[in-house]
Write a structure and sequence with these properties.
- It is built from 6 helices and 7 strands.
- By secondary structure, it is α/β, with parallel strands linked by helices.
- It has 2 domains: 1-31; 40-192, Rossmann fold (3-Layer(aba) Sandwich), CATH 3.40.50.
- The chain is elongated, with a radius of gyration of 19 Å.
- The N and C termini lie far apart (75 Å).
- The mean pLDDT is 94.
- It binds S-adenosylmethionine (SAM).
């Protein structure tokens, strides 16, 4: 009897783990990137590059993965609101658990299931991302169109090809990861059309 129960439980657990891996694999192929989290060193650099924020500022993490960076942002900026946008179910559910486990209320940290290319970004004061070159090529014009003038963009590892970064910092990790900082700045003539 106990043996049967144990067998059913272990098969169920194996099936759940396999399904989770399969879901992550399928979404990663579709997205062109896995939900690989940033290392602690890089997270620290991202927070340093974000700098000081006024009360009530909104930080949007485009592609929040397992939520480790967003949770750290919520701890580091307790007077700000953090929104993680993620379209992969397994990391998304994990990140929600992580936020809950860290007792971070939804008023400070939320994880939304959605496509980062569809997200509005109008409310964002800071956008953080760690994506891949093709995603950066697509995200650049979207931010330029939807984000407010002056919105800060902090990108891990990948640059926007046709934007001039305000700063590029190299982290002391094994990969010498670069952290790029930009501001959405439109040319005055662009505002007229
Ligand atoms: C390299 S991970 C970075 C995770 C997290 N930002 C961090 O730094 O720890 C990139 C994440 O972006 C997500 N992603 C890629 N394309 C996306 C899309 N179109 N919409 C939403 N999320 C996306 C992936 O699922 C993945 O979790």
């Amino acid at each position: 009897m106990h043996g049967d129960l144990y067998g059913i439980l272990s098969w169920t657990l194996t099936a759940v783990v396999l399904l989770a891996f399969l879901l992550i694999f399928v979404t990663s192929v579709r997205n062109g990137i896995t939900p690989m989290p940033t290392s602690r060193l890089v997270r620290r650099m991202v927070m340093r590059e974000i700098g000081q924020l006024s009360e009530g500022s909104e930080i949007v993490e485009a592609g929040s993965g397992f939520g480790t960076l967003a949770v750290n942002l919520a701890r580091r900026f307790p007077r700000c609101r953090i929104t993680g946008v993620e379209n992969s179910w397994v990391p998304l559910l994990f990140s929600r658990l992580l936020g809950w486990g860290n007792r971070l209320p939804k008023s400070r940290l939320t994880f939304r299931r959605g496509d980062l290319f569809v997200y509005p970004y109008e409310q964002a004061n800071v956008v953080v991302c760690y994506l891949h070159p093709a995603a950066m090529r697509r995200l650049g014009p979207i931010l330029w169109e939807r984000a407010e003038e002056g919105t800060k963009v902090v990108s891990v590892f990948f640059a926007f090809e046709d934007w001039d970064p305000e700063s590029v910092t190299v982290c002391g990790d094994l990969h010498r990861t670069k952290v790029y900082v930009y501001h959405v700045r439109r040319h005055p003539l662009d505002l007229l059309v």
